[in-house]
Amino acid sequence: MTSELKLEPAELPADAIEVGRIADAWGVKGWFKVLPYSSDPEALFKARRWFLQPSERGARTFSGTAQLSIRQVKDHSDSVVAWAEGIDDRNAAEALRGARIFIERSSFPAAQADEYYWVDLIGLAVVNREGVALGEVRDLLSTGPQTVLVIAYEQDGKPQERMVPFVSAYVDKVDLPGRCITVDWQPDY
């Protein structure tokens, strides 16, 4: 039995953030396994609308952006599984394999004091206490015990990067509206 994949076309919201991808079908009733990009994928559990785009590699079973109305999401063992409207059998779930999952930023739970979503830190300018520009946050790395800011800058016309632990011992202030992070760090470290 082959079911036709019927997805609702949609526009990707301006505040959409990629939060994971669909790994594979799970079971026979249309559930699918999700690989979240976050170790705490709370936004996946709270959002009832997910936006999908096809995988950048491999076979494409749909094009453009589609909206999924999520029926249920749950933890299962070491992964996350979900079930959506219109995805009612294993074949339909398999057709979603590799799809990229986006959620509206407005659907994310509010961050607690002194907590930040990584996506909000990317692109922020980084300066030290003396006002010396150290570069721009290009990425963040989780090293286990701490997160590290990967800061891109140029030296003698060549792209460079420096890494600063994202901990209170080195980070004085995160100013999201001002798009700047102030750190206790020197350019020659």
Explain how this protein is built.
This protein is mostly beta strands and 189 residues long. It has two domains: 8-107, Elongation Factor Tu (Ef-tu), domain 3 (Beta Barrel), CATH 2.40.30; 118-183, PRC-barrel domain (SH3 type barrels). Helices cover 8% and strands 44% of the residues. It contains three helices and 13 strands. A six-stranded antiparallel barrel has the order 2-3-6-5-4-7. Strands 11-10-9-8-13-12 form a six-stranded mixed β-sheet, with no helix packed on it. A hairpin with a 6-residue loop joins β2 and β3 (32-36). The longest helix has 6 residues, at 90-95. The radius of gyration is 20 Å and the shape is elongated. The mean pLDDT is 91.
What are its keywords?
3 helices; SH3 type barrels; Elongation Factor Tu (Ef-tu), domain 3; elongated; 2 domains; 189 residues; six-stranded antiparallel β-barrel
- What is the count of DSSP helices, taking H or I runs of 4+ residues? 3
Mean pLDDT: 91
The CATH topology of the largest domain corresponds to Elongation Factor Tu (Ef-tu), domain 3
CATH architecture of the largest domain: Beta Barrel
Largest sheet: 6 strands, antiparallel, barrel
Instruction: Assign an overall shape.
Output: elongated
Contiguous runs where pLDDT drops below 50 for at least 5 residues: none
Order of helices and strands: EEEHEEEHEHEEEEEE
Strand content: 35-45%
Q: Tally of extended strands?
A: 13
Main CATH class of the largest domain: Mainly Beta
Helicity level: under 10%
* Overall domain count: 2
Class by SSE composition:
mainly beta
Give me the Rg, rounded. Answer: 20 Å
